[in-house]
Amino acid sequence: MSANNTSNNVVIVEQIKSLIYKTCLNQDDLNWGDWLDSCDDGFEYAIRSYSPEISADMTYLSGNREHMRSLVDMLPKHNSDHSPLKRHCTVYDVQVAEDGRSATATTSLAVYQTLLDGINSHVDAGSSHLFLVGRYNDRFSISDGQVKFAEREVRLLNRRLDKGSHYPI
Amino acid sequence: MSSRNHAQWTAPPKLSKGEWVDSRIYTDQAIFEEELDKIWKKSWIPVCHESELKNAYDFRTVTVAREPVIVVRGKDMKVRSFLNVCPHRGNMIERRPSGSFREGSPSGTPRHMTCMFHAWQFDMKGRCTYISRQEEGYQDRLKKEDVGLRELRTEVYFGGFVWVNLDDNNPMTVEDWAAGSLDCLRSSLDEEPLEIFHYHKAIIPCNYKLWHDTNCEFYHDFLHYHNRITGFNDAYFARKNSGFNNGHINVGSFEVQYDKYQGFHSRETLSFPHLPPNHWYMVDMFPGVNFNLRGSALRCDLMTPLGPDKVLIEFRGLGLASDTPEERQTRVQHHNSIWGPFGRNLHEDLLAVTAQGACMHPAAENRHILHARHENETIHDENGMRHYYEEWGRWLDRSPSNPDHAFEAYQIPDPASEGQRASA
């Protein structure tokens, strides 16, 4: 019997799926603190994309948990596009390590943006469009039955990002 | 008077000629078409970096003034560029953004550019090497020698950027064209090979000049919390904003205090050759190119005008080819924290020009856009934009403040000082 088929791992897999989905809801609602509280101390975050234009793998944003917390804490001081983002994801695969202390997950991701103040609000506010397409490649730490994010790579297909965003994805 | 009626709002400002521009230069389709023909098709444009074509037979495709262009590295390692157009029926020869001709294509043989439509083939020097069923169709009336590609003037210059000029008759080299504007960065960028590590693009609903204006003026640092907190000090306000021939400007350096921004640290441990730690130079080249060296990372913006109200902006980030993996990671992190698509400053700049575009679309009421700040040609002086539009008026023979009238050279009094423009 593989590690992923034990009854304990079935519980862990469901915990991981639930954590990924809840994190989408938290980020959609700008509850950055709840997201970062679900990350362990050594958490690393990165948004990456491969560019066929320059034939190179690129990192668009990266940081550890404290760096990400600082970035979101500073948001009120910045001029931003406040158009809400909605993350639609499907967890395709979860693999729990043999020792049960870590796991990885692959999640398909689409992010929609509903315009608010990004262009001309009278004309554009309220319209939604596809903003980003990619995957979450997550790694988790598991301790005493509790799952936490150890690493999140947002792997985008996009290289055209127009105005971009101040929000983590 | 706290507000104005329509007549007052549309009346010319009580400023000197050259201290404002007419917003039609940002919105008018006819002016836009003239700009493509008279400026963009005659200027040197850095379309990519040589590190995007590292090996023989590598290629990169771009667009200049609506013309599809292909840049290739030959077997002799020389970089050449051609119109990416088949001389047979005008099809685009290569559709991918980049790649290698070392392998064959479904219609063609290795080490050749092949038009998939009818399988005509060309070598890396633009010579036609194969016409399918040539003798059956053309007998001896048309030969391969008659149908080579259209080669474009190409130079690799200034840290390895690949410059292309569509105009065969412009006698200037890129060095002539730069007119000294790049000198402040040359020792840093020419010391050793550079390598690209970042690319992304934006299509923004605004005129390309609005993005160039934003790169040319630093008064808009009030937009950026990061720049205010890490910069606003005596050394910042003393930075010189200098004009050069051909419409280029550069902005002098000072030491940025990155550690003043919560969560950021000093970047003094990593820089470029001959660049003091944490320093920051910027060069804005006519008609729409920006080089921006902030300590550990070089940024290059290239504008491709798509319409009077639409511009493609390509953002590149570069480090040293000799970087260790750790150094490269640090450069990437420094670059992205400010200039990446999720960075602190770039998003703010793009929001601002998008909002300008929303107010200056082709059907918008005509407006006067002020370029009238005088601060002894220092950082918040708007002399950079004035210098650009003086050049723009000369190229189009239109007055920037009244584009229906022919351009006339003018002297703008400087109430802040008697400072002299540093034009070469």
Concise account of the structure shown:
Chain A has 169 residues and is of the alpha+beta class.
What is the helix content of chain B? Answer: 10-25%
**CATH topology grouping of the largest domain in chain B:** Naphthalene 1,2-dioxygenase Alpha Subunit, Chain A, domain 1
- What is the strand arrangement across the widest sheet of chain A? 2-1-6-5-4-3
The residue fraction in helices of chain A comes out at 10-25%
The low-confidence parts of chain B are 419-424
Protein model, in words:
The complex is a heterodimer of chains A (169) and B (424). Chain A is of the alpha+beta class. Chain A has one domain: Nuclear Transport Factor 2, Chain: A (Roll), CATH 3.10.450. Chain A contains four helices and six strands. Chain A has helices at residues 7-28, 32-37, 65-73, 121-124; strands at residues 39-51, 56-64, 85-96, 102-114, 128-143, 146-156. Chain A has a six-stranded mixed sheet. In chain A, a hairpin with a 4-residue loop joins strand 1 and strand 2 (56-64). The model of chain A has no long low-confidence stretch (mean pLDDT 95). With 424 residues, chain B is α+β, with helices and mostly antiparallel strands. Chain B has two domains: 45-157, Rieske Iron-sulfur Protein (3-layer Sandwich); 183-396, Naphthalene 1,2-dioxygenase Alpha Subunit, Chain A, domain 1 (Alpha-Beta Complex), CATH 3.90.380.10. Chain B has eleven helices and 19 strands. Chain B has helices at residues 6-10, 29-40, 134-138, 174-178, 183-190, 208-216, 225-231, 234-237, 325-339, 346-359, 383-396, and strands spanning 20-22, 45-49, 58-64, 67-73, 79-83, 98-100, 113-114, 121-122, 128-130, 151-157, 161-165, 194-204, 241-243, 249-251, 280-285, 289-294, 297-307, 310-320, 368-370. In chain B, the strands form four sheets. Chain B has a seven-stranded antiparallel sheet with strand order 2-11-10-5-4-3-6, with no helix packed on it. In chain B, a hairpin with a 2-residue loop joins strand 16 and strand 17 (297-307). The radius of gyration of chain B is 23 Å and the shape is globular. In chain B, 49% of the residues are buried. Chain A binds chain B through residues 47, 49, 51-56, 58-63, 66-67, 70-71, 73-74, 77-81, 118-120, 123, 159-169, and chain B through 51-52, 60, 96-99, 196-205, 223, 225-226, 261-263, 316, 332-333, 336-337, 340-344, 346-348, 350-352, 354-355, 358.
